[in-house]
Design goal:
The protein is an alpha/beta fold. The chain is built from 20 helices and twelve strands. Strands 6-9-10-3-11-12 form a six-stranded mixed sheet, with helices on both faces. The longest helix is centred in the middle third of the chain and has 53 residues. The structure holds adenosine-5'-triphosphate. The site of adenosine-5'-triphosphate has 12 residues, from helix 13. One of its GO terms (biological process) is protein secretion by the type I secretion system. InterPro entries: AAA+_ATPase, ABC1_TM_dom, ABC1_TM_sf, ABC_transporter-like_ATP-bd, ABC_transporter-like_CS, ATPase_T1SS_PrtD-like, P-loop_NTPase, Type_1_exporter.
């Protein structure tokens, strides 16, 4: 069975390894189960001895002896049963130790949002099932034929009754599985959807309240819950029908075996002691089937969860690939024919994007909303893997470096600052102390990064300075403060490639000046800097400009050259035919209002949208 569960696809090695590490637990649990099942024969043998030897002869000594042996055997049974349960529990704990971190790492690496983002919950299902009654029932199941054999040994008629009864029970169990499996899968997926929706609403409670969406979101929640509980109830009802029938059949079989054995005893074909023994043997033979039916939902859920985990690991296979250590990069960025297409969309969001940037160069990226700037930033930051093309740092594809090792060289400020619960210092140092960096080094790095970002003074002015604690999702700072702390985080450890996605969207004048200094400082020490901006102030001093349109590069080159072309393509005053559509002429250096770009320093026109 273990072999069938062992995943073999590339990337799933950690799962297979963890299962193999628990092999001895499973093996010992199987051995103990064998002993437990043998010891379950004790009451049968005891009864036969009492009725066939003690009662006819009145031998009290024999009674004492067989009782002592029976008590000892039952004690051993209880001990072994406890031990096998404990072994399986420990197997679950070992799986947790070996896999929990890896599951989380794979979730972080997962590119598309998929149900496997709840992977830790899926993993808990598997762990719970391993330590649960269902697994023990699976270990007991192979003993059914042995008990059946014992019934045949007592008398062929008793064997036949057990065989036929067991067969009907097995058929019912199979029908149960066939009927409940699809219902259970539906119940599990609706439950997962209901939980995710609930978490989403709880996380945005403030917006829900302020927008007066209480009633509508509660109504949607309740409806989702109703669907989930209805699906669950449907599965339970279907399963309940079968478990009721199975219970009825088992009790009837037990009584029938008593009756049949009594008849055979009256006819002198078996001893009186065999009457109760027959009933006990039969119930032991069919008990695993009944147990399995009861534990089936959790086993099915665990199997489905294991499949999801296998898919998650196979889909993130590159995480644990062996890689050669490469020299420290200098910051030479090459973007080669990058194409990105998000799942469930018709056209790609980036198409054949290609450009290069040298260490120390700064690139401004502009373009209308939805033109693909953020998508490009995510690709360059290593956050999003393109479907085609490559991004190289000093000639090596991003994939050539392990995720965290690559991130060490890249500073990324996402469009939404995305800070985390923890101190400001921990946020800036990217929680380095959690992975063994000593406190002093992390402190020094955090302060240096904050100074480079021009955020040191701002942080010192906070009530607890660098030790100020942020709440979930980095709550506790203003949008501008959060952006400046996130800039410091991007600059932590002097990355050679800096990717800033609208870094000035929430900044005041002081913040924007600090940002400009940070960009120029990073470029001066040799970092390549990519800045995406709608507000043009920050682009006034970049070396190169890149203009995106519909997921493609429209213009790219030295800043002045690109500005010149932009000006050349701006429409003349209304009435002049044959002019390109989207920008008004600007004074001085700047194209006044290219789509998605506010006027550069000195220009005064408001931005215009592409028509
Ligand atoms: N996760 C996603 N799934 C599907 N489509 C997406 C996803 N993220 C972005 N898009 C689509 O990709 C396109 C580019 O989006 P992107 O965020 O890169 O634009 P942008 O130029 O940064 O816009 P803005 O200036 O408004 O931030 C848009 O059409 C958007 O709808």
């Amino acid at each position: 069975m273990l072999k069938n569960l062992l995943p073999s696809k590339p990337g799933t090695e950690p799962l297979a390894e963890a299962l193999r590490a628990c092999k001895s637990h499973f093996l010992w649990a199987a051995i103990f189960s064998a002993l437990v099942n043998l010891l379950y024969l004790t009451p049968t043998l005891y009864m036969m001895q009492v009725y066939d030897r003690v009662v006819p002869t009145g031998g009290l000594m024999t009674l004492v002896l067989v009782t002592v042996v029976a008590v000892f055997a039952l004690g051993a049974l209880a001990g072994l049963d406890w031990l096998r349960g404990r072994l399986m529990l420990r197997a679950g704990l070992r799986l947790d130790r070996m896999l929990a971190g890896k599951v989380l790492a794979r979730v972080v690496d997962l590119q598309a949002k998929a149900p496997s983002t709840q992977a830790l919950r899926e993993f808990d299902n598997v762990r719970g099932a391993i330590g649960g009654q269902g697994m023990l029932a699976l270990f007991d199941a192979p003993w059914t034929p042995i008990y059946l054999g014992c019934c045949f040994l007592l008398h062929p008629m008793l064997g036949l009754l057990t065989l036929v009864g067991g067969g009907i029970l097995f058929t019912l169990a199979w029908l149960n599985e066939r009927d409940t499996r699809p219902r259970l899968s539906k119940a599990i997926s609706s439950q997962n959807q209901a939980y995710s929706a609930q978490e989403g609403i709880a996380g945005q409670a403030e917006v829900v309240r302020a927008l007066g969406m209480r009633q509508s979101s509660i109504a949607r929640q309740v409806e989702q819950r109703r669907q989930a509980t209805a699906a669950q109830a449907d599965a339970q009802l279907a399963g309940g029908r079968y478990s009721g029938a199975i219970k009825f059949l088992r009790l009837t079989l037990q009584s029938a075996s008593l009756g049949l054995a009594a008849y055979l005893a009256v006819k002198g074909e078996i001893s009186p002691g065999s009457i109760i023994a027959a009933s006990v043997l039969l119930s032991r033979a069919v008990a695993p089937i009944e147990q399995l039916v009861g534990a089936w939902p959790s086993l099915v859920q665990a199997m489905a969860s294991w499949k999801t985990l296998t898919e998650l690991f196979a889909g993130t296979a590159s995480v644990e690939r062996e890689r050669t250590n490469l020299p420290d990069p200098k910051g030479r960025l090459q973007v080669e024919g990058v194409t990105v297409k998000f799942p469930d969309t018709e056209a790609p969001q980036l198409r054949g994007v290609a450009f290069a940037l040298k260490p120390g160069e700064t690139l401004g990226v502009v373009g209308a909303s939805g033109s693909g700037k953020t998508t490009l930033a995510r690709v360059i930051a290593g956050a999003l893997r393109p479907q085609a093309g490559a991004v190289r740092l000093d000639g090596a594809e991003f994939e050539a470096r392990e995720g965290d090792e690559l991130a060490r060289w890249i500073g990324y400020l996402p469009q939404v600052p995305s800070l985390f619960a923890g101190s400001i210092k921990d946020n800036i140092s990217r929680f380095a102390t959690s992975v063994g960096v000593d406190q002093e080094t992390a402190d020094r790095g955090a302060v240096a990064a904050a100074q480079a970002a021009g955020a040191h003074e701002l942080i010192l002015r906070l009530p607890n300075g660098y030790d100020s604690m942020l709440g979930p999702f980095g709550q506790g700072l203003s949008a501008g403060q959060a952006q400046r702390v996130a800039l410091a985080r991007a600059l932590y450890n002097d990355p050679v490639l800096l990717v800033l996605d609208e870094p000035n969207s929430n900044l005041d004048q002081e913040g924007e000046a600090a940002l400009m200094q940070a960009i120029l400082g990073a470029a001066a020490r040799g970092a390549a800097v990519v800045v995406i901006a709608h507000r043009a102030g920050v682009l006034a001093r970049v070396d190169r400009l890149l203009m995106m349109r519909d997921g493609m590069i429209q213009l790219e080159g030295p800043r002045e050259e690109v500005l010149e072309k932009m000006r050349a393509t701006t429409p003349r005053p209304a009435g002049q035919p044959g002019q390109p559509v989207h920008a008004a002429p600007a004074g001085g250096h700047a194209p006044a209002a290219q789509p998605g770009m506010a006027p550069m320093a000195g220009a005064t026109q408001p931005p215009r949208r592409a028509q």
